[in-house]
Amino acid sequence: MNWRRYLYILMFFGGGTLFTFSLLPFFREFNDTFYIATIFGMVVCVVSAVGIFHKPREKVKLNSRYERKTTLVSAKEKELLAILRQIDPDRYEVLPQIALVSVIDKKTNTSYRNELFRVCDYCFVDRKTFEPLLLVELNDSSHKRADRRDRDEKVNAICRDAGLPVVTFWTNEPLDFQSVRKAVKKSILK
Known about the structure:
Blueprint: H1 3-23, H2 25-30, H3 34-53, H4 75-84, E1 92-99, H5 100-103, E2 119-126, E3 132-139, H6 146-162, E4 166-170, H7 177-187
Helix pairs in contact: 1-3
């Protein structure tokens, strides 16, 4: 117990004693201003009771250190984003770094939704309704590893089941406007 709690307990008993004595008949005869002692005793009791039972919010303790990223996308992702945003900008909005959970709902309660917390590089949405129309992935050589291939297969299977197409581009391939536009227009939901 900390010193403040002890102080509040002493104040409570002091205020309670003053309040009790102020109600006794001999105290009233001794002092004409007994009502001031009564009110003061009540106030001290209430304030100290609040102090005794109030529990301040504990600060959240972090086990790790965190730092804000300097950019949301890599240089190659920024390059592709610029190309994607040129494709029919009056009709589509292109959003970077979209988690599947933002565009797909799980309809069965068989397990947790953690498989929907995978992030896709871009999402084409209708500019007026923000309906998701297409996901775009930009893969580098790390996607050739077995664990990344498994992740990509899972994302593609989820998207296929949800009826949301996915287009994949590779960083080692040239990304020109015409070929990117053709692939997007071929796959995007109408």
